[in-house]
Amino acid sequence: MTKKLSSAFIALIFSQLYFSQEKPNSPTKEKEIEGVIITKTKKAVEQKADRTIFDFSEQEYLNTGSAMEGIKKLPGLIATDVAGMMYQGKVLDVYLNGRPLNISTNDLISFLEGMPANSIEKIEVITQPGAEFPATSGGAIMNIITNKNANKYLTATYSGNYAFTNENKFRSRTNNSLSLNARNKYFGWQLRVGQSYRESEMNSNQDHLVLSNTDRISRGTFAKAGVTVDLGNDKLLLNYDVYSNNNDNITLSNGSFTLPSQIVNKFSALDAAKTNTLRQEAVVTYQKRFDDKNKKLDFQAGYTRSDNDFYQDNIYNQSTVNGNQSLGRLLDNNSVMQVSNFKVDFSQPIKILDEGKVSFGGLYENQIFDTESKGVTNLEYERNTASTYLEFQAKLKKFDFVLGTRAENYDIGGTTRLIDLAGALQREPLIPFNKFKLFPNASIQYNLMNQVYLALNYNKKITLPSISALNPNNNTFTGPNSSITGNPYLQPTIYDNFEIKLSAFDYAFIGYNVSSVDNQVAQLLSRDGDVIKNEQVNIPSMRIHNFNIGMPIPFMIFTTPLSEIMKVNFNPDKINFLYVYAGYMKHEIKEIDPKGMFIVNLMAQVMLPSQIKMTANYNVLSKKAGFYYFESEKPFNERFDLTFTKKFLNEKLTVSVYGNDLFNTQVTQLHSKPLVGNSVFLYNKTDTRNFGFSVNYKIPTKNKLAKEDANILKQTNQNDSNGGAMPTTP
After folding, report:
1. How far apart are CA 106 and CA 467, in angstroms?
2. Taking 80 as the threshold, does the pLDDT of residue 618 lie above it?
């Protein structure tokens, strides 16, 4: 088997290498033809020195269901409730269309579950953010790009999805969206509107003290509008996005706890909770263009506001000792987040070695976050960040160099209100963070041959605590056995990231990265008597090691001699193959010494008769694996998904039928490893097994000559996406 896998890898590499080379000495023949149609095939996966790009628009197994379901299928990406989102061992900062999402951790999952996956064009996972990106990007960035190419004349596309689960009860999930695009010689515009509806169930066991069953209904709507105005060679972009989520939870819980009198108190309760979130964002961008197409100057101003309201009502509570207690409103929290920013970016080619480029710019950002509990303000947080950057890129023969630094000045402060021993509210200042810091970055890439390179990278980054971790009302459920709080005293996290990576033809790669981390923010579960404490803490010092490898294996290697395979000019996106991703991640924390985690992702593509494409996806994380202050007791995120896709009506209609988590194996079962207090057993099982179908229909219009422009997303070495919902020409 090892020889076969090695042969498969060699066959893929050398066949692509052979057909990618020019043959200047080959004889040519002139032939008169009536016409030529050139079609650009999108790559399912594209490896670059600083990022990995996953195409969603043409990958049906990714774009059915919600955005969260698609993201969980990406090889190397881990999405959990306890560890957040990580890619190849690095914590991800989530961006939307090139801009920080500026959303709390609690709301992120709801946001992604409410976003249809078919509204995503592609996802960039930027593992080595350069100086152009804010230093607060931390370890890595996941940039969700929903932009579509502007079109001449009017085009319209409808996308819809329906799925159901039958775990204990039949539940439905659906989403619909409509995208309209148009462009003329003066301006272009884009409008996308959509909705989502999701019913789900979660069963939980917290250290055998609390058993709960939660029925959840999530409703989401969104609208994205963009206008691009042509001002000669310059462009003016106007964008407005709005997202609304309305979620309801019904939780039936039962358990026991011991009173100070040593009497065991059993309880059974029914609670109703409701969350309303409204997020709005407006962005204005002016792009100055010059005769030299590689020279650019961009100005951008943006404003984001997110309003969140949450309450929990206890509608039934029966206790063997106290009778009906604590009825009525238990939690009543709300928060308002506002972010304003202005940035300038400039770049132009200069002569450095063989060729080069210089980029510089600046950013000013203000963030205000206020929270209330039952009408009382208990957090007033404000952050002001001023930054500037300078970066050089150069090329010398087969070497590419990047050297830059970003200077950022932070002014963070505020107040919180705590209850003192006398029961009165007392205002207390937060720990201020007023610092000026430099964040250098450097990379060297050696191009061994066409599309094969070896890269060495280093960058220093910072991550500010998320507003949900700071929020003292960071609580979505309260009961007699639980204590869940935010921590307004958390300090920023500092990263030193090192990486070495060998990549070949976008699909095959091998890499190792290590991050030295100070003050990593982590969730900590501990038990004091019969009360489970859930809090956010800083890990003083740790290292994160990650080794990963990805390799495609064409199935023809098992049926066709290697000599014959070498003669075939095949496209990996159109053949039967198995893509294997494997990784090993180790969190090095001296106090608890957690075990390493093995990560495996297998994705098989099989072309069936009648042009039906079958895609199978399997993910698993090993058991007994440690991440932060947790250790898994069962394989984590284990699931098997299957998708069948066929195109109709001259590829205007795409229909997919799918099943996710077919064997119902995705479960969270772990225990905490606190430094103080007793360990806590935690079990969560949601109805991840679901079946459904999706359709994507390019609606015919009267404009028979409607055609798509070339890809006009701006192209630079550092950032392939622009800040607007409407793409622009460079």
Report:
1. 9
2. yes
Measured CA to CA, the distance from residue 87 to residue 503 in angstroms comes to 17
Backbone angles phi, psi at 63, to 5 degrees: -95, 15
Enumerate domains of the chain plus CATH numbers.
Answer: 44-699 (2.40.170.20)
Angle, vertex CA 112, rays to CA 110 and CA 115, nearest 5: 110
Within 450-554, where are the H helices?
467-470
- Residue 628's pLDDT is 87
- Per-residue pLDDT for 209 more than 90? no
Distance CA 287, CA 232 (A): 11
- When mean pLDDT is compared across 70-79, 184-193, 205-214, 257-266, the lowest value belongs to 257-266
Whether 242 contacts 726, CB under 8 Å:
no
Cα 239 from Cα 237, distance rounded (Å): 7
* Pairwise CA distance, residues 576 & 714, whole Å: 33
Predicted pLDDT of residue 34: 39
Residues near 730 by beta carbon (within 8 Å), at least 6 away in sequence: 289, 293, 296, 712, 714, 715
With a cut of 70, say whether residue 40 has pLDDT above it.
no
Burial per residue of 498-523, b for 16 or more beta-carbon CB atoms within 10 angstroms, e otherwise: ebebbbbbbbbbebbbbbebbbbbbb
What element of type H or E holds 535? strand 531-554
How confident is the model at residue 565, as a pLDDT? 63
Q: Which two tokens stand for residue 48?
A: 């670059």
371-398 burial code (b ≥16 CB/10 A, e <16): bbbeeeebbbbbbebebbbebbbbbeee
Q: E-assigned strands of 290-375?
A: 296-319, 328-350, 355-373
- pLDDT confidence tier of residue 258, bands split at 50, 70 and 90: low
Match 């190849």 to its residue by tokens: 88
End-to-end CA distance of the chain: 49
Which of 130, 204, 139, 111 lies closest to 521 in space, CA to CA? 139
3-state secondary structure of 556: helix
CB 625 within 8 A of CB 631: yes
pLDDT tens profile 462-508:
888 877 777 777 666 777 677 777 788 888 889 999 999 888 766 78
Going by their DSSP bridges, the two strands 531-554 and 482-484 should be labelled as parallel
CB 212 within 8 A of CB 685: no
Closest to 122 measured CA to CA, from 100, 142, 108, 152: 142
Q: Which residue has the tokens 């399997």?
A: 618
pLDDT in tens, 326-339: 678 888 889 999 99
Amino acid at the residue 568: V
Residue 36 has pLDDT above 50, yes or no: no
DSSP-derived secondary structure letter, 574: G
